[in-house]
Structures are given as structure tokens and as C-alpha cells.
Amino acid sequence: MEQITSVNNQLIKSLAKLKQKKYREQTGTYMIEGFHLIEEALKAKLSYVYLLGTEDALERAEEELNVELSAKNVFLINTAITRNLTSTKNSQSIFMVLKMTQPKNYSFNFGKWVLLDNLSDPGNVGTIIRTADAAGFDGVILSLESVDLYNPKTQRAMQGSQFHLNLIVKPLSEVINELKLNSIPVYASLLDKNAKQLPEFEHVAQLGLVIGNEAHGVSEEVANICDEKLYIPIKGQAESLNAAVAAGIMIYYFA
After folding, report:
1. What is the pLDDT of residues 70-123, one digit of tens each?
2. Are 36 and 160 in contact (CB under 8 A)?
3. Contact 133/112 with Cβ under 8 angstroms?
4. Which CATH class is domain 2-99?
5. CA-CA distance, 128 to 142, in Å (whole number)?
6. Pairing mode of beta strands 29-33, 94-99
7. Closest CA relative to residue 48, chosen from 163, 173, 137
């Protein structure tokens, strides 16, 4: 196990840049931190590019996660480097670098899917993915304009569900057309009292469920190619529901 002591070390400088989307895309890698996410990645049998931690953190990883500390891609770091790499206020001082694993081709010919249309809040996206995982959905598709799947905040909000589901970034129009070609209905969630209300929907074995942008909802282009427009009845005085809350209600309705 090699020790790194300076924040000016070339590897540390390059890893610190992974907080930025353009460097993640350039390198095809991203970084997670904290024992829970790292444990979930290891459970998923993912091969990591690097593992870095302080002495205490690595000792814990060896004891609890069976990490081989003598591996060439494991590095001992200090608290100064931890502060340089972390994206949290209370870091657990352990980091893992992984390769992005976006499938180039995928056949949408079965299953239950959540489609995210230009969602911008990483917490919402992560929460929706975690909820879809809990409800037994097959995966989540993010439009090209949605928040970056590998954003550190999104990664934390998913709480490990990113390693359990199919997560795909793809134009929603292409996905919707393929789902419909395979006789899988697609429902767009809209804040429209004239749309079909959620309790009126029958439970189906397969579907695509479109969740729209927090401020603007599902785009007109996407809504127009969906099979049905869906509305969650609001009984109180609130104008709308948070996107992740609305998604959770619908996901579990169709689970």
C-alpha cells in the first residue's frame, strides 16, 4: 500500500477534479465516498480503480469489508487530502473511484421503468432511484438534460441503489417509442386536473412512468407521445407535490 502525503500529488489533483462533470466525462470515472456506498459497490462485485483512505478508515475497510490493503490501487492518505477530496461536511475519510458503466444499447422490451424528464435536483433524482429500487422496478432512465447521474449529491442520495438497478441516460422519446412498440404503456405525470386520476388506473405488469422537471413538469413533446396523462389528486391547499414525493406515490401504486 502506497502512502500519499501531499495534496499536490498528481493523482490527488486529478481525483479532486472528479467533483466536476467535465472531468468525470473525460476520464470515464467517478468517485464515491463513505463506508455504506463503498460496501454496496463491493457487494455488487464492482472492480474499483482506486481506493483511498486514512489509516483508521482503511483498517476498518479491511476488517469490515475484506479489502486487501496490499493491493497496488489502495492508497493511504492524510486528513489534509481527505478535506481536498471530500464532498461532504463530515467525511468518513474513505474514497473509491469507479468506472462509469453506462450501457450503450438496451432493449426496453419488458419491465417497470421510471423515466425522468429533465429533473434538475440531485436529491430528487437520487431519492426517486432509491424508491424505484425499493419498489422492485427494473430501472430508471434519465433524459440527457437531467442532472448528472454521477454528481456526488446524486450518488449519496441513491444510498447504494445505483448498484441494484438499470440506470440509463438516453433521449426519452426513443425510450418511450421502444416501450410502446413492445406494448408497454407509458404514463406521464402532469399537474392537470383534467388528466386521468391515479386511482382510476388499473395495475399493470409492465409500464413506463414519466416524472417531469421540478419547475416545469413533463415537457409537451414527451407528454404528447405518452399513452396516458396521470394526475395525483390534491385534497388540501398545496399547489403541487415535490417531484420525489409524487414519484414515490406513483411508483408504489404500480409496484
Report:
1. 999 999 999 999 999 999 999 999 999 999 987 777 889 999 999 999 999 999
2. yes
3. no
4. alpha beta
5. 11
6. antiparallel
7. 163
